[in-house]
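Problem 3 from the worked examples.
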Amino acid sequence: MNVWRAMARNPVRFVFSSWPWRSLAYLATTPLVAVLWLAVVAVLLLVGVVLAPLVVGFGVLACVPLTAVVLASVERWRLRWLDPRAAPSAHRAVPDGAGTRARVLFRLRESATWRELGYALLFSVLAAVDLMVPFAIIVGSTVAVGAPYLVANGDRIMYGSFATVDEPLEAWLTTLLGLAIALAGCYAFAALAGGRAALARALLVRAPAEELIEVRASRARLADAFEAERRRIERDLHDGAQQRLTGLIMTLGLARLDGAAPDLIDKAQAEARAALEELRDLVHGIHPSVLTDRGLAAAVDSLADRSPVPVDVDVELPERPPEPVESAAYFVVAEALANVAKHSGASLARVRIRRGDGTLLVEVQDDGGGGAEPAQGGGLQGLADRAAVHDGTLRLSSPPGGPTILRVEIPCAS
């Protein structure tokens, strides 16, 4: 609820609510904030000009735009009087460990600082309107309502050259007019204050689009970091542990030919081969070479061949998706088929992958018993998180008795 919605929802109840008083308080404090900011700016400009021959004078002048940052913080706090929605700052966080000079330069380079300075200048001009309009309404309605008392004491109320009130009947009609002005003033205060609040939100508050861009950039950085770490692990395993185990197997084979204890050598060779297979499976789980070398279609066919449940694969990709999207789609299929084998009791599964309209569609269906639940921390939750990293969505249909259909859509730019 904010002042605009409160006024539109019930105009009659609005008059007797706290919103008109909040609006009046917002307008009344605006000139005070403006005068205080102008005084601070005037002092800084005076000191800066006086000290201009010295280097410190330019530092003082550089602080003038930063006063708008403080004013903007005050305005975002005052917004809560009329609009309780969150009002995050449009500024970025200052890097940790930055000194005073670095912090000042960081803020001066931000477009948000100069936008706030422009708002502060406009705010100072509009503060005069915020002072005059409520003053005129309050004084005019008060005089009009008190007209019978003034006329009874022999006073005359003159509205310029247009009208003069000096009769009791005219005075009581003027009182009704004063009440109407006071009633209309409640809406005038709210409209004016709501307009000022909307202006402050537009110029001083981080826009949802900016937040979305930052979230997407953060997701992209996380995805890139994950991909780089995956490749490092894969390279280390391939070039290190696998090579050493392969050398061990060959050494044991030569030792057997030289007449060493056959039983011990056979056991050592078997353990080495098992460790090598385990490492290969681990590397395959991190990122299969077939996905890198031959693409998503071949990698999904490989998953289907190893699945204990028969899998019908239908992949149509006119061109390979970007590598992060391709990797995410592969692991979605791998996890989904693993869930089918472990939990569904299905006799057949189908994998369908399509690319079109800037989206990669992955659909996995089985004829099992259904009832799959995306429990927090489960495999399905992990799939949803993996899709969300790339701004994708996961949809699940799994009624009791089946079938289960898992559909993942990942944005995939050309």
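Problem 4, a separate protein:
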Amino acid sequence: MPNDTMTRWTVSVSKDTDISVRSFLAQRGMNKGDLSKFIEDAVKWRILDRTMAEVQDKFSDLAPDALNNLLDEAVAAARGPRHPILSRD
């Protein structure tokens, strides 16, 4: 039965990158099947890193106190009555 939550990729990397990644995984007792997990984790971290850099750039002109107030408002809204699990009450 096919797994509908997975997608197959075909990627090309340099020979040096291939050797480095496979050596890294082997040194940690991981096997060939762990390569997909490693790549998925790396992609998620890279997306987070890029997103954070974009957000930091967009808010770079905002004073620290104003940014903290904005963040406090967002957290309060997330913890509001519509999200009782996040609420501090």
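Solution to problem 4. The helical segments are 15-27, 34-58, 64-78. The mean pLDDT is 87.
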